[in-house]
Amino acid sequence: MRKIDLLNPPEIIRQSHWRDRYETKVSQWLRPWNGEEDLEVGLIGLPLSKTSISISGASTTPNVLRELFANVTTYNIDHDVDLQELKAYDLGDIQMHMTDLLRCHTHIEQGLNNVYKALPKLFPILVGGDHSVTCPSVKAFKKRYKGKVGIVQLDSHMDVRNLEDGGPTNGTPIRGLIESGTVEGCHIAQIGLHSFANSKHYREYAQSKGITAFTARQVAREGIETLVDESMKIAGNGTEAIYVTVDMDVLDQAYAPGVPAMVAGGMTSWQLLDAVYLLGQNPKVLGFDVVCVDPMQDYRRATVRMTLHVLLTFLTGYMNRKACSNEKDNGRDEK
């Protein structure tokens, strides 16, 4: 059995006593990895929320998400895709330090470096945690692909706060990536930004760095498909790979009551699901995270459930990407 340093096995393993020979639950499919089986996709928890500006229990999200695995099936009826055909496992969580926040970020970066070295073909599905986890995660992602990388961010906030006033927080991941030279602003596209959730100064900073921003109002008026297409072109122009980060506060407060920073007039559930499906289809998208859910503030786990659907819908797009690639390969073989 392979053991990866700084990666702990899942704390919660949820199984349902109910069995139906014609139905597969996510808990039956997305099982803990035993360190030996081949896998293509790996779920990894990043349970950190001490760096959140708002009070947040986002560190509990990976385990609360696992508790819901037995409640949903692997079949996407809209796209006629069954995810159980995908070799995916739950790898567990990156080990966090109890009090040292910067060490937690170091653990995330080094832990993911270790994962990518041990499993070079793995597609990572990362579950936060607050949005601060994206900065060390993308740093590991950049090392993996060596060349330039792009980011598509679905979020109400720009996340370019200065690093002097409070250090690395859930409001600074994009600033941290730019200031560290990890990602260039011209390769970052943000979708769903919201009025009264950002400042004019930070918008001007983002513009000065070449970041492309699409607001929630633009999503409502221009359509999510158009903006996702534009964002992929921006993030993919001259880059080796694209990293997708989804902050669940991009949703309107009616759809996401369990986020630390709720907004009125945000995106709808279907706009977000359509967005992640399209992003999952793009062959240049090679990393994905979803962050900023607080199960302690979540009515009937509504936001955590939505987070699980976001994750599964992204993987639906990923599976359709594979199917299209296989069809092309078969076509070349026939010629």
Automatic annotation (TrEMBL):
<keyword id="KW-0464">Manganese</keyword>
<feature type="binding site">
    <location>
        <position position="131"/>
    </location>
    <ligand>
        <name>Mn(2+)</name>
    </ligand>
</feature>
<comment type="similarity">
    <text>Belongs to the arginase family.</text>
</comment>
<dbReference type="GO" id="GO:0046872">
    <property type="term" value="F:metal ion binding"/>
</dbReference>
<dbReference type="GO" id="GO:0033389">
    <property type="term" value="P:putrescine biosynthetic process from arginine, via agmatine"/>
</dbReference>
<dbReference type="GO" id="GO:0008783">
    <property type="term" value="F:agmatinase activity"/>
</dbReference>
<dbReference type="InterPro" id="IPR020855">
    <property type="entry name" value="Ureohydrolase_Mn_BS"/>
</dbReference>
<feature type="binding site">
    <location>
        <position position="249"/>
    </location>
    <ligand>
        <name>Mn(2+)</name>
    </ligand>
</feature>
<keyword id="KW-0369">Histidine metabolism</keyword>
<protein>
    <submittedName>
        <fullName>Formiminoglutamase</fullName>
    </submittedName>
</protein>
<feature type="binding site">
    <location>
        <position position="155"/>
    </location>
    <ligand>
        <name>Mn(2+)</name>
    </ligand>
</feature>
<dbReference type="InterPro" id="IPR023696">
    <property type="entry name" value="Ureohydrolase_dom_sf"/>
</dbReference>
<feature type="binding site">
    <location>
        <position position="247"/>
    </location>
    <ligand>
        <name>Mn(2+)</name>
    </ligand>
</feature>
<dbReference type="InterPro" id="IPR006035">
    <property type="entry name" value="Ureohydrolase"/>
</dbReference>
<dbReference type="Pfam" id="PF00491">
    <property type="entry name" value="Arginase"/>
</dbReference>
<feature type="binding site">
    <location>
        <position position="159"/>
    </location>
    <ligand>
        <name>Mn(2+)</name>
    </ligand>
</feature>
<dbReference type="GO" id="GO:0006547">
    <property type="term" value="P:L-histidine metabolic process"/>
</dbReference>
<keyword id="KW-0479">Metal-binding</keyword>
<feature type="binding site">
    <location>
        <position position="157"/>
    </location>
    <ligand>
        <name>Mn(2+)</name>
    </ligand>
</feature>
<keyword id="KW-0378">Hydrolase</keyword>
